[in-house]
Amino acid sequence: MNATPVRQHRPEAESETHSISLLLNGKQVQLTVEPWTTLLDLLREHLNLTGTKKGCDHGQCGACTVLVNGTRINACLSLAVMQDGAEITTIEGLANGDQLHPMQAAFVEQDAFQCGYCTPGQICSAIGMIKEGKAKTRDEIREQMSGNLCRCGAYTNILAAIEQAMPACQGESRE
Amino acid sequence: MNRFSYSKPQQVSEALQQLSDTGRFIAGGTNLLDLMKENVARPSQLVDINALPLNKIETTQAGGLRIGALVKNSTVAYHPDVERVYPLLAHAILAGASAQLRNMASTGGNLLQRTRCYYFYDVGTPCNKREPGSGCGALEGQNRIHAILGHSEQCIAVHPSDMCVALAALEATVHVSGPSGNRSIPFADFHRLPGDTPHLDTNLAPDEIITAVELPPRGFAENFAYLKLRDRASYAFALVSVAAGLELNGTSIGAARIALGGVAHKPWRCPEVEAALIGKPATEESYRMAADALLQGAVGFEHNRFKIELARRAIVRALSEAAAGVNAQ
Ligand SMILES: Cc1cc2nc3c(=O)[nH]c(=O)nc-3n(C[C@H](O)[C@H](O)[C@H](O)COP(=O)(O)OP(=O)(O)OC[C@H]3O[C@@H](n4cnc5c(N)ncnc54)[C@H](O)[C@@H]3O)c2cc1C
Ligand code: FES
Ligand code: FES
């Protein structure tokens, strides 16, 4: 809009890459990323961690929920380069060897999915929610989990699974 | 998404210096990246401001609260001082978006989020906000979510924020820094009406950065309500929202604040209507009078006329809830 631009961006931007380090599912990794790569695309397309799903790519569904420094966020609306130095946990990083995370086990026991597409996001979101410590009643859990849509409508069993896993997860986040 | 360069400065002065004419700051990224994916925003450069020291909530000398521009929406909503003194702000924030988004969204970014008008988002349609002079797709199109107050022939979009509705009612101040120094903007003057410049949402200059939002001491913690009406019970933008704060002298009104969301290009307030409530009995009749006055001159379009009556009833209900103190701890 300004007819006489004062400061121009550097034209070499087109080929610019950045080196970042992440603590990803417990492992330290060094990566080179282009600035326009989202955290979600980094995980799925570059690192082959396809457990985290892309539903809408616009923050509207929660399928891409991961934990960054223990906090749940939508990986589709963050750039990988912005996460330099962060600790990132995806669905692949929850189990301890063959032993499922209590939230994963509860989802299996309560049959909390049909197609399973929303499930990794639901599980990461539920773990993040419990750590936040703001949801105690069933209505509060429903409200705090509203950022995770389930097209199959498995909400009843998702709620049951979260309630079941809550005591075990609370013990864990106190450690 | 278009190609762009990226930098992460450590100081405000550095950030201001690095920003080029076609560059943008990025905070949480939840609005800017969404718009970049839709090709609505095409910055040549992103200056990541997350390393700047704007991440604190502090008590001010005046007895208010200063919230750094980078403080996350969830951190504000659950901050003990906000919960205690400004529960209206906490309720408004928690009525918006989802827990994940609130964990990402920053205070500054929330103020600068852009409209959710379908035509603004769809680069295949005309939109004076996105492309000045191209026309308004909403005027004769799908306009259910659009404005009933303060709109112009050029633009009938609404500002989508919940947090800003509470900040308007609380008479916050926005602190900004620019190449020529610092200044403070009263919240009522921060966002603009569309007029014939709908491409400008706010009075922040393109080369300025928001550093903090300051709340004055008065929080209306005893008698407040944030009422949000929408198409589903959670994780949806407001069709109409009302932030209400009252101070009561026995059964009469000592002070009143009313701000509306989802109805205009900025949070909608009428200080004259609030002043007229002073000394009136805290009754439904007074609230109805205020609602009628606030909505005087409201004009709807083909799909959103329902918002006028909806807003009227929402104002009465929010003021009744505020007076009854049902939300106070
Ligand atoms: C699916 C979805 C649902 C949502 N629902 C709601 C809702 O119900 N209610 C609601 O209120 N909001 C809602 N939001 C919007 C959300 O609140 C905003 O996207 C968020 O507040 C923006 O903050 P951010 O830090 O992510 O901004 P960014 O995306 O980082 O930035 C937004 C703009 O602000 C500029 N900017 C950021 N910080 C500064 C600064 N300090 N100084 C100068 N410029 C700056 C950027 O350059 C950019 O132009 C929703 C969003 C999504 C995706
Ligand atoms: S893919 Fe991120 S919220 Fe839908
Ligand atoms: S199980 Fe299919 S979307 Fe949730």
TrEMBL record, chain A:
Location of the 2Fe-2S ferredoxin-type domain: 18-94
MF terms in GO: 2 iron, 2 sulfur cluster binding; metal ion binding; oxidoreductase activity, acting on the aldehyde or oxo group of donors
Annotated InterPro entries: 2Fe-2S-bd (IPR002888), 2Fe-2S-bd_dom_sf (IPR036884), 2Fe-2S_ferredoxin-like_sf (IPR036010), 2Fe-2S_ferredoxin-type (IPR001041), 2Fe2S_fd_BS (IPR006058), Aldehyde_Oxdr_Iron-Sulfur (IPR052914), Beta-grasp_dom_sf (IPR012675)
Keyword entries, A-Z: 2Fe-2S, Iron, Iron-sulfur, Metal-binding, Oxidoreductase
Name of this protein: Xanthine dehydrogenase YagT iron-sulfur-binding subunit
Lineage: Bacteria, Pseudomonadati, Pseudomonadota, Gammaproteobacteria, Pseudomonadales
From TrEMBL, chain B:
Signal sequence, start to end: none
Domain FAD-binding PCMH-type: from-to ranges: 1-220
Keywords: FAD, Flavoprotein
Presence of keyword Membrane: no
SUPFAM superfamilies: CO dehydrogenase flavoprotein C-terminal domain-like, FAD-binding/transporter-associated domain-like
MF terms in GO: FAD binding; oxidoreductase activity
Cross-referenced PANTHER family: OXIDOREDUCTASE, XANTHINE DEHYDROGENASE SUBUNIT C-RELATED
Protein name: Xanthine dehydrogenase YagS FAD-binding subunit
